[in-house]
From TrEMBL:
Keywords: Receptor. Residues 37-105 form the PAS fold-3 domain. The keyword Repeat does not apply. This is Aerotaxis receptor. It holds the Pfam family PAS_3.
Length: 411
């Protein structure tokens, strides 16, 4: 049995709705409302005749940054689902927060919204207050505001806004289950765990690139030190040149999967984030569809059509989740192979580094300049190998988790 609506956390000036409830609305491509459920009707405070045919922004609250809607429209316009925290306003001025799951449909867009309660939602509220104030004070263009939101996601450690919202959706579903006294949903927990592993890969790849870029200056330092210790063209100079040439080959290979447009890590992240968001969306769509069984007839709304549309979206999201996961698994396996290849190339650099250490001992570098430079190489080599090992392990975890999910779905 569904738990009763929980209004215990409501405060003055806040529209009431429970954790057990879901908002539903559907619009055309211009954002004009075509349908909505009883929760949307009740909480918004508008009569049906005032909702149907009205632009959805009729419930928009000015405290929601315009950049949020720029991100949403960009994703939906490209045919992709997206999520967002949104602060809305009822007809009487009361406000209410939702986490919205938005999906493109053939003739417009559909939104299912739940009541957020995770610690993340509290942080988002504070960020929105600051950003919306900046929008008004600095007259920020929505695209600039959207960039600020993407930067916030990046600062939190997420490679894309979709990945950030997939994480948020998982957290909100888990928090909602707890509020309603439901047992933890295994699919939701898996969503959160896979997303965490995915973002660890992203963090490791950026640290790896920074370490390797810092490494590039060391051969030059070695050559400068060598010019003081040996005749031109001596062994240390030759070692530094060999090291530089070999490291440039690895650097190019490294950049092909951690830097640049549509790099391998980005492809893993994009497909995995899409799969994880769809995984959470599927659960929301399924529950919303079940709620329509008891829908009260409303003039102007064809509930049979809405149920059919939701069932189709539920099935499509299940299919798209599987497809995105299969692609992410393939990219993750390729990423693991690329990491292993770079690790093998690093063995060649290690050999050159050891030769430098031997030559340093032979020359009895009393000033310590060459020895200190080789020490730097030791540190960077250890760091790079650890990063590569971490990327390989996390890539395998992602692939394994998604394969387990796919096998479970097949059964």
């Amino acid at each position: 049995m569904t738990a009763p609506a929980d209004f215990s956390k409501s405060v003055e000036g806040e529209a009431y709705f429970g954790f057990d409830e879901l908002f539903y609305s559907r619009t055309d491509k211009r954002g004009v409302i075509l349908a909505g459920n009883d929760v949307f009707h009740r909480v918004s405070g508008f009569e049906w005749k005032d909702i149907l045919g009205a632009p959805h922004k009729v419930v928009r609250h000015p405290d929601t940054p315009r950049g949020v809607f720029r991100i949403l429209w960009h994703a939906l316009g490209a045919g992709h689902p997206m999520g967002a925290y949104v602060k809305n306003r009822a007809k009487n001025g009361d406000q209410y927060w939702v986490f919205a799951v938005l999906m493109p449909t053939e003739d417009g867009y559909l939104s299912v919204r739940l009541k957020p309660s995770s610690p993340l939602s509290d942080r988002i509220r504070e960020d929105y207050i600051k950003l919306s104030a900046r929008e008004r004070a600095e007259r920020l263009d929505p695209e600039v505001s959207a960039g600020e939101l993407r930067t916030m996601a990046s600062t939190e450690g997420y490679s894309t806004y979709t990945s950030y919202m997939a994480f948020a959706l998982g957290k909100e579903l888990a928090a909602r289950d707890a509020k309603l006294g439901r047992p933890a949903d295994p699919r939701t927990l898996r969503l959160i765990d896979m997303n965490t592993s995915l973002e660890k890969v992203t963090q490791e790849q950026m640290k790896l690139l920074r370490s390797f870029e810092a490494l590039q200056s060391i051969p030059n330092n070695m050559r400068i030190v060598a010019s003081r210790l040996e005749p031109s063209g001596g062994p240390v100079s030759a070692i530094s040149e060999n090291y530089k040439a070999s490291s440039m080959v690895i650097s190019e290979r490294l950049r092909s999967f951690v830097a640049g447009r549509d790099n391998l890590c980005e492809r893993v992240s994009r497909q995995a984030a899409r799969a994880l968001f769809l995984l959470g969306s599927n659960r929301v769509l399924k529950e919303m569809n079940a709620n329509f069984r008891d829908a009260v007839p409303v003039e102007g709304i064809d509930w049979a059509h809405e149920r059919k549309l939701l069932r189709e979206l539920e099935e499509r999201s299940r299919h798209d989740t599987r497809q995105a996961m299969e692609r992410a698994v393939g990219h993750a396996e390729e990423l693991s192979r690329s990491s292993a290849e770079i690790r093998r190339l690093m063995l060649g650099l290690d050999t050159i580094r050891v030769l430098g250490r031997v030559e340093c001992g032979r020359m009895r570098d009393t000033g310590g300049g060459l020895s200190a430079t080789i020490d730097q190489l030791d540190i960077f080599h250890a760091d790079i190998k650890n990063r590569l090992e971490s990327i390989m392990r996390l890539s395998e975890e992602i692939g394994s988790s998604m394969n387990q999910f796919l096998r479970g779905e097949s059964r």
